[in-house]
Amino acid sequence: MTTFEDILEEAGAFGRSQMRIVSIFCLVSIPFSFVYVGIVFQGFTPEHWCRDPAVSGIRERCSWSLQDARRATVPLMNSSVGVTYNQCQRLDMDWNATGLTCDNPESELIQAQLSTLPMTGCTDGWEYDYEGRQSFVTEFDLVCADAWYVDMFQAMLSVGFLVGSIAIGYLADKYGRMKSFLMTNFFIGVAGILVATAPNYIALLVFRVLFGFGVKGGWMVGYVLITELVGVEYRRTVGVTYQMFFSLGILILPLLAYFIPNWRWLQVVFTIPYICFLTYYWFIPESPRWLLSQNKRNEALEITKAIAKENKKTLSKNTETLTDENTDSISTASFMDLFKTSKLRKFTFILSFNWFTSAVVYQGLIMRLGILGGNVYVDFLISGIVELPAAFLILLTIERIGRRLPFAAANIVAGAACLITAFIPDSMFWLKSAVACVGRLGITMAFEMVVFVNTELYPTVIRNLGVSVCSTLCDIGGIIAPFLLYRLAVIWLELPLIIFGTKTEHKLCCLYCQMSPNMYVKVNNLRSLKKKKNEVVKPKVHEK
Fold first, then answer.
1. How high is the pLDDT of residue 430?
2. Are 249 and 29 contacting, i.e. CB atoms less than 8 angstroms apart?
3. What pTM value is reported for the model?
4. Where in the chain is the domain with CATH 1.20.1250.20?
5. Which residues contact 9 (CB under 8 A, 6 or more apart)?
6. 219 contacts 29 by C-beta, under 8 angstroms
7. Which of 27, 296, 376, 439 meets the CB 3.0–4.6 Å disulfide criterion with 291?
8. DSSP 3-state assignment of 76?
9. Any transmembrane segments, and where (predicted)?
């Protein structure tokens, strides 16, 4: 009996054909990063204070700047970040009846009276120190009592991720990787344009769910497809490379946001790549492993021959008995297959927990950049640069010392950095930034390792479903993360960091140490033994 791995060795485990396909598919990760953390720019909350029609009239008559008017008419208050201008209340007085003059916008008499005068709500809206730019926060006035609606924008995306990853994962296992990928990208294109043209915030949230439904599922299908087209020994490399392009997208995003100041046009730019991905119909084949798992041997063989031809190889082995070594007796995957054996159950629970904590901490650290008060474009760019070494560190370590030690080290670094950063005073700005960047590097490594380990531990017939189901806990974490960050930051700006650090250390201590150090090393050893002894060996990842 000839296995697909035997044929792939002859066709080229990672030849020119696979390099082309992986290079093209890695582009999918770039717009995914735009969608995943685009809220930092699309939902940016600038400095704001209550609009007063009388003050606006004086400002126009006197040619004051917004800052001049704020200094003269807005009282100070204590907040979680120190003494700031009041953002949610204004003075209940008639400014036209005061001694405020154009020549003295900072009248000492007026300033002395500010703390004693009666206050009222922002009945006439808000002024924003965000000239020339517009986020959905400034368009829909999502500040003060309505600030939690901003959390809903990101949470609704994760709701879409949650439902879409399961649904599209199931469709990909039943109807094929490429069919599901193409269908998903068409759906994303439509939903993305609807988000950009939403007439009100309720419609925006609904369309945001639909947008997220396709984005996450399509990205996961792409990840599974490229890992199935290469030899087992190359899966880690292509998987980490696929995620490295996500970090590349993090670098590109602040540049796009800087030159595209309107959140609606920024949404259009996020959507255009997904429409372009429909052209992959002419460049990317279906997964031969999936075809074999569905007993479509002839189609799988034709694609494998095309790969061999592009790699300038020829197939000499007997293909009449070609089969996938991971093919089970069932032809389609079901949810219960993830709990079929004790080892599969353990993998599913452990991986789900790690997806959850990694998502909460990773998203939280990125979204935190939007509330620190510095230059959000520069801060975001620096944080993106910090992410890039994560992929190289993973590739350097896992081949030599396995998975558990690098994963544990990454979580220790991330958790410790979060806890230390929370207690470094703001006066030591550069030290605080450096420690925070180290934490960002650690959680990026941990997140990327969870993704590719997830694909390695499941057999072909349930691989896409397994990745999709486990990653749903990532989406639940994504729903919680914005509320955890933004609401706790109101109490104390550093409080979310303490929670993130605690979660990361708890993840390390509780579960991951139970996982086998390198299941695929065992499979590779079995495969090598089979070749040497010419024996029929049918290893399964989920069995000892």
1. 84
2. yes
3. 0.83
4. 1-46+138-315, 337-531
5. 231
6. yes
7. 296
8. strand
9. 21-44, 152-172, 181-199, 205-226, 238-259, 265-284, 347-371, 377-398, 405-424
Using the Cα atoms of residue 229, residue 231, residue 233 and residue 237 in order, give the sign of their dihedral: negative
Tell me which architecture the domain covering 1-46+138-315 has in CATH: Up-down Bundle (1.20)
Residue 331 CB neighbours (<10 A): 12
Q: What are residue 533's phi and psi, to 5 degrees?
A: -95, -5
Helix (H) or strand (E) holding 533: helix 519-533
Q: What are phi and psi of 82, to 5 degrees?
A: 115, -155
Cβ atoms of 318 and 2 closer than 8 Å:
yes
Nearest one of 296, 227, 213 to 472, comparing CA atoms: 213
**Residue 123 CA to its chain's centroid (Å):** 37
Q: Per CATH, which fold does 337-531 belong to?
A: Growth Hormone; Chain: A; (1.20.1250)
Write out pLDDT tens, residues 268-302: 999 999 999 999 999 899 988 888 888 888 888 88
Q: How far apart are CA 257 and CA 250, in angstroms?
A: 11
Query: Residue 221: what are its φ and ψ, rounded to 5°?
Result: -60, -40
Cα–Cα nearest to 500, from 426, 407, 431, 420:
420
The answer to whether 208 and 153 have CB atoms below 8 angstroms apart is yes
What confidence tens digit (pLDDT) does each residue in 215-253 have? 988 998 998 899 889 988 888 888 888 988 998 999 999
Backbone angles phi, psi at 121, to 5 degrees: -75, 175
The kind and range of the H/E element at 426 are none
Which residue shows structure tokens 């789900």?
Answer: 352
When pLDDT is averaged across residues 118-132 and rounded to a whole number, the result is: 84
Q: Which two tokens stand for residue 177?
A: 């990787």
Of 144, 230, 213, 151, the closest CA to residue 455 belongs to 230
Residue that has been written with the tokens 């896409």 in this structure: 464
Q: pLDDT per residue over 158-206, tens digit each?
A: 999 989 888 888 888 889 999 999 999 999 999 999 999 999 999 999 9
